[in-house]
Amino acid sequence: MLVLAANIAGIILGNELLQYYSKPILMIILGAYFIAQTKVPATWLKVWILAALFFSWGGDILLIFQDKRSLFFLLGLSSFLIAHVFYIVFFHNIRLIEEIKSNPLLLLIVVVYYAILISILSPFLGTMKLPVRVYGIVISFMFLLAMHMLFIKNKAAGKWMFFGALLFVISDSVLAINKFYQSFDGAGIIIMLTYGLAQLFLVEGSSRYITSKYKE
Question: Which one, 71, 83, 103, 176, has the greatest CB density within 10 A?
Fold first, then answer.
């Protein structure tokens, strides 16, 4: 939380050096925290979370340089897309373990969100239209599976994961609107605050779930 606060302070103060140094540390600290919290034998569930954090870390670093060259934004987007794929695999396997059936209502919620966001952004995406649409589909699917976490036996862990995914969607949506549709004051603060808390909540929820399953 201190590192996240430092990064947000850097945004408020316009201190790029503070932002550059604090942002890459976030996922490293969360990865170390996750490992410390899940002192259980190695499982694929742990591997998928660590992989998601690793590619999120890569995305953080790449996006630092997006203002210098547009390619870095595309590479950062790709890195986060891979991170979401690992979160998808993680949530899907929990859904199978917990024997949770698909819920059409949850799918409807995700489809409506995706349709509204893309309809707003599409006229302004230009050459980024395909990458952004694909990314939108992936994060929407991640959120769909995360909503199913509300129905697992470990309710506390499920809520942590759900709200983490929700904050991730909010962060990415604000980022997309600010970058492609209309930039606005305070966007950077909202993006980083929701992103940092999203990853923290996802790590907290996943570590609680993994630990509880090992104790059963």
Answer: 83
Distances (CA, A) of 29 to 22, 47, 134, 195: 11, 16, 29, 14
Q: How far apart are CA 33 and CA 87, in angstroms?
A: 17
**What does the alpha-carbon distance between residue 68 and residue 25 come to, in Å, rounded to a whole number?**
21
Task: Quick: pLDDT tens for 142-190.
Answer: 999 999 999 999 999 999 999 999 999 999 999 999 999 998 889 999 9
Sign of torsion, CA 6 11 15 21? positive
**pLDDT computed for residue 216 by the predictor:** 56
Of residues 29, 37, 18, the one with CA closest to residue 56:
29
On whether the CB atoms of residues 182 and 135 are closer than 8 A, the answer is: no
Residue 132 is which amino acid? V
Burial 17-34 (b: 16+ CB within 10 A, else e): ebbeebbebbbebbbeeb
Of 125, 146, 150, 123, nearest in space to 135 by CA? 125
Task: Report helix angle 187-215 to 16-37, nearest 10.
Answer: 10
- Determine contact, residues 156/137, Cβ cutoff 8 Å: no
d(CA 38, CA 79): 25
The stretch 202-215 carries a mean pLDDT of: 90
